[in-house]
User: Fold these one by one.
Assistant:
Number 1:
Amino acid sequence: MPLHPLHGPPGLLDLKSVPEPVTHTAGLLAQLDEVFESGFGRLSSANLQTLASLASSFAGTPLAEPLQAAIAGLGRSEFVDRHFAVIAAARAAAHGAMHDALVAQACAALSRPRPELEVFAAAPAQEAPPRAAVLLESVRQWLMELAIAGFANLEVGALLPFQATLDAIMAEPALVRHAALLSGFLDELLTVFPAHGKPEVPRLRWVDLWARSMVLSLAPPAPVATREVKGELRVFATDLRQHDHVVCLVAFGALHEPGKPPRVVRTSVSAFKVDVLQGEDLAGLLNEVGGKLLEAIAGGQGLKIAGMLLHATGDLVWQESRAEVLPAKLKLAEEAAAVLTTPTALRPSARPEDRHPAVIEELVWLPAEAYAATGKEPREVSLGGSPFPLASERVPVSDDLPLAELAGSKGLVALLRFDGGRWSLQPVMIDKGKPRMVGTSLQSARAKARGGNLATLKERAGKLLRKKS
Amino acid sequence: MIRPRVLPRARKVQKVPFVELYAGRLQGVVSSGSDQDRVYVSYFEAGSGNFYCSTNNNRPCGGLRGSPCKHLVELLNEGVLQYGAARVIAYLGLQAEPDKVKSGGELLRHIKGGPHKVEAGMVFSRFLTYLQYVSVAPTGVPLPDMAWFVR
């Protein structure tokens, strides 16, 4: 039971401040990111000083020595990818430490245990596809060129050749995660860099994407340890993520396995796409991989699953053939309240190498009496009279989850997020008697999507790509 | 309904299956009005305002007589629909006021260049890359990096 039933999760207001080490590390990384903007090809004395203080902040850690060597090498204009790999690893490690400190702060405030990875037997070793290694080497080469030039000095002509590498990565199923990340990153670079003019560089974001890409490309992906699960999945919240070339519907739910207490898991269905495919076309794209998931989300029903694979991070690998939509309508708000009020340590989290403040998504349940919101586009909720920011910029514009519905709602599931140096809440399900969440309209949009843009493009692709090969 | 991000109305791909701002050009593929199997490859170049239209086998479009043909007008219309007038105007470096532009066709009088041939294959291969995206299998595996991509 919550300690303060009238104020929802105790202590969210403790998150108005940020731990000092987090702010300090963010400041150090902001200086490092300036080097990425101006480029490693022309290091100023200020840049060299920044790199030196980065190295000293890693003193006594396993990264200290490689980092010293990499920085010395870069200072001598040795442009080899291993130096950049070390810089990326150091930046990722610093973000990992920030992530851990922030999660500890959030869990203390919410009086819940920190999330833990479930322990599985190691996955059997498996050989990576032969092309993966050389493709990833090409990625590192490209990333190195970006870093040498600097984001402020990029030219469109230098970005275009990478498209051919990306095409090959897209054709390699083992590199699906790389394809999703790199296609989004390249899109963004190409959007911001038109033929001429000096655009503003979203520095932190681009260096994040750069470092993620580099860390992910250091070695071909190793097989992931999983275990088979069976039971019932009750999805009570969703989130939609997308760029021009990928759409990803993330679902959070309670997993009821026989003989075990219910726990929170995360699952997702994703599809590659092109910019013109939006709105109802998303339904057509996701239907193929997650039609039953869309059906259950639309109807507020449970899913019987058998033999689906669960990752140690609480991520369920969605497989249509192993799911069955159950007929009964569930009380999803009650389901969410029950599993989120006192969650166990086994709940969705990130692998150590993926940890970064931007991937923190701690699920919270707020009962009606805990919060109040007003207006058509609320930017904050009132928690017992105190304002707390809403991450409204993360909520897609839709009829499925309009934030205006917060006013007078009976409860709320939100992701606690950290962005822009502060904590905020992203609503992912609003209880209006009937649950409101992103994706509830996709089921009915499937029919409309038939014969639309997706069908036309698929038909063209069928004809033309066959001709080409 | 999940709303499109920028489009004032959803673009239909039947007539213009492909349009993009790329490599200093507004370029795309326009279906022929008469022959189902024929497509035209059209582009406007940023800065110079040069343009061209040909079949994907490099046969020049018959409608191209010193000024943009109807395929190029359609390309401009769909480009504005896809990206918004402001982005197209900025990309092509046109002297037009974005707020006053209601359709792409109105931008035509700001195009100062003339017909200038490029190999259709350059644009057409981009179309094939574009189509490749809708041919990749969807997936149920976790994609944690998508946390960065929200709109």
Number 2:
Amino acid sequence: MSDTPILSIRDLTAKVADEDVDILKGVDLDLFKGEIHAIMGPNGSGKSTLAKVLAGHPGYEVTGGTVTFHGDDISELEPDERSQAGIFLAFQYPVEIPGVSIANFLRTALQARLEEGEELDLFDFQDELMARMEMLEMDPSFAERPVNDGFSGGEKKRNEILQLAMLRPSLALMDETDSGLDIDALQVVSRGINRLHEENPDMTVLIITHYQRLLNFIKPDKVHVMLNGRIVRSGGADVALELEEGGYEDYRTAEAEAIAEAEAEAQEA
Amino acid sequence: MSDTSTIDQPIGGLMEGITDAFNASAVEAVSGGEPAWLANRRTEAWSAYERTPLPTTRLEEWRYTNLRKLLKLDRLGFDGVSLDAAVATGSDAEPFDLAGAPEALRAAMEADHAASGHVVEIDGRIVHVDLDPELASQGVVLTSLRRAVADHPDALDRHLATDALPASRGKFQALNAALWTDGVFLHVPKGVRLELPVRVTRYLTKPGTAFFNRTLILADAASQVSFVDEGLSADFAEQTLFSSAVEVIANDGAQVQYVSLQRMGRGVFHLQQQRTLAGRDSTLDTLNVALGASVARTDLNARLLGPGANSDMLGLCFGEQGQHFDHNTSQDHVAPHAKSDLLYKGALDGNARSVFRGIIKVHKNAQQTDAYQTNRNLLLSEHARADSLPNLEIEADDVKCSHGATVGQLDQEHLFYLMSRGLSRDRAERLVVLGFLGEVLSRLPLGGVVEKVTRIIEERLQHG
């Protein structure tokens, strides 16, 4: 673990591009090389927004704060530039792209990472693709099927992990990767993530989830609780267990009290 | 408008389109030396042409394609006479010199995969035909239409511009039937199956001219054949008319695939009339790929004449600045227990326009019909436009029919997904467009066509 975080978020505020109200209301977060973090929070807390903002989704607008990745400010970068820099977002709802096969798509994505004039070795590519599909217990025929077209929820999520495996990012943002998975699929997916992290211990992983159950399979170094656009608690893996028992209500109450207090202070002033 | 101002422009619809180039003496010249049945057929077609007014946008079928604006018939030349002299086909032909051919034609042919036979047409005249001798010995006939007039008069008398595309079907069907200069005749006898496609390459060199060709494909019972018809030219500064009439007849149990790959240059007005007649238990599939020309109008009428007939009707167009595509299709269910499935897609950039008008017609006795029609359009620019007019006309009561049409833009979520994997916006757009159109190609993956079309579209997207 080095002294400078690979991802550093300071007082980040962001909103949906054509709306007025910020969804992220001042997020601070540091991720160091090789760490596994989990952000937990109820629906509407802003945790998925954070993932999309980090990946550069054009539907969101950063209104304040900074995001530095490997020491560089990335807030002006296009999504493809962020990907090239090493950020990967596993989608909560992977998009169906008719007529584009997984193999073709991944080939194009890997080719795009090479220098001008360099050619991807197609044999190596094919070998690796098949090996990774086997690891994720995917049928080889999937390689030639259009991306996510007609896939079940579990197949879509495996396909996200397949892309993670092939693209080898330095930062993996896993946006509700566990949602919509049965226990078998959840195990395959989390085994895949663990395996990739073992192969490349420098890969930093940020898991975004509503539920604690994924963290039974992937052990986080740190757990953060997000509520109403802010991180309200950070700690070790035990925070997830606290949540398991107390739910988000304790935090909601605490936050409501804090807001009431702040408002009262404001009125006094 | 007063009638004194338009002495040389007849009004009221009659006698429209008779010009210095298109007139009775042109018909006479082009039919010089032909047998009486054919000369008569041309004369009759010509009078049908004379009688038929030029379609206006008041007609549903021409609502979005204004011929008065888009087609300057009176500026076109026509050169029917010199074609009469040379009939060059088969073994007695001068060997076709591919090395001396225009580069675009050469490239198109060299990229072709293996074939059962080839035909090359330059400026409306067949200059080369070859056919696998093994197939010739089984009775397969592949020849120029001019030569077929002499060698296969009975088949032509019976089928040329009669059952499928008679002059009575419209103004341009009549003009083509009157003035065609050459074309292709393919006959596959009963039970004969061609493993590889027949490939036709047509090329135009003369701007400002009108060209008329015909294709007649006769597939006898239980035969099998696929036919790839590619047309190309340079870009022309003067409007050039390329009129193709295609008649495909599939007899009982025959399997026929007809693919048109239109890559004409700018300046070309492409008029393509196709009619397919599908007999009992036959399969008669078509794929129309429209990439080129300034204006390209395709009329496709698929008639399902025998019970158990099956037609897949596929089409795609990719348009850029200054291009106008118009597809007018009908799925004509005459016999019961037949199926037709249409999928036409268009992707349009710049100020390109496309029109799709499709009708499913189920006749009274055509019970147990399955007929589907889908038209999807993708607009890549805010100046592009697509109009879609799907239609149903159903007289039978026990049928399964559906139609649907969509016009949309590139989905930003699709682009974000691909870009988040490191693809540039351009590359992501290319992939989405190719995927969108590729769905059509993948339904009729004839050797080489998918790769060729994909490559052409990819190159154009890259330069765009």
